[in-house]
Write a structure and sequence with these properties.
6 helices; five-stranded mixed β-sheet; Rossmann fold
Length: 151
């Protein structure tokens, strides 16, 4: 089974978040494929928080509310185990401490704390699943899409 970590850009495209949905059709097709092939889809808290931030910045109040309601429904389904993806646990304090220790150097490379947390999740999943493909599903032109460990 392949393990797919959903980045904010992929989640925004799947949910069709206005101004963050340039790859919506491609994302829906990929999601259907991933579900059909039995991928384990992980939705990190960082992607949930960042997606919520993007929604809160929508200028049109009606669209902001409609999008927020759709978003909340999907996250609630994930928490209940009824969505195609599942949320990741809240990081333990000792994990957060490790991320914070690494953050100043990563910030110098332009890496956000949210992205660093996804990379740490990727590393954790690779260690827990040595015989499985693990990748970060991202549409951003950053380093996250390069995280794809095939076996």
């Amino acid at each position: 089974m392949t393990i797919c970590i959903i980045d904010t850009s992929a989640f925004c495209n799947v949910l069709d978040i206005p101004h963050k949905n340039q790859h919506h059709t491609e994302a829906k097709t990929a999601l259907r494929q991933y579900i059909g092939e039995g991928y384990a889809l992980l939705l990190p808290l960082a992607a949930i928080f960042e997606t919520g931030t993007h929604i809160s910045h929508l200028a049109d109040g009606r669209l902001r509310r409609e999008t927020a309601l759709r978003f909340v429904e999907q996250v609630r389904l994930a928490v209940a185990g009824l969505a195609p993806w599942r949320t990741t646990p809240i990081p333990r304090p000792e994990d957060l401490a490790v991320w914070l220790d690494a953050f100043p150097e990563q910030a110098m490379r332009g890496l956000s704390l949210a992205d660093l947390s996804m990379i740490k999740l990727f590393e954790q999943q690779c260690a827990l699943n040595p015989a499985r493909r693990v990748f970060i599903w991202s549409y951003d032109e950053d380093d996250l899409s390069a995280y794809d460990r095939t076996v």
